[in-house]
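Hey,
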Amino acid sequence: MRIIGGTLKGRRINPPSNLPVRPTTDIAKESLFNILNNLIDFENIRVLDLFAGTGSISLEFASRQAESVVAVDLNFKCVEFIKKAARQFGLSSIVAYRTDVFRFLGKSPATPFDLIFSDAPYDMQKIEHLPDLIFDKKWLNKDGLLIIEHPRGIDFANHSQFSQNRRYGKVNFSFFTNLP
């Protein structure tokens, strides 16, 4: 894996092989960030990375000068790897928390985020509930963007905040906007 853009473009990420993750492929990640380049200004945004895994997405946002990136994952080894990678690359903007994502989202945020990315395990049963939980608890700023990576069998098109879906092989990204 590598960082595909920003100040750390080209740097390799070498997570331990024993992490229980399915990282977003470089091709899908590059396609996603090509879309985001046309939608947002990365500098000065607050990002929440749910089910952060290797932290690949968190590192991409931090490399692009996001003001802050909060990475949440339940696995201790994943969180430790994210912290280690952030230190290695000198990215003080990344903070990683080891906790259950649904428990984390069950609280109301002190300050909402500008962009939320979620890459839950594809076999997780609660993926369909993520948009409602995020919007109901006001985790996303007005005009904010929620992106959920998910398998082909899930369709968010009927959700009131849904805006588009992009597919790259087996990877699907559903986009939601927090418009008034």
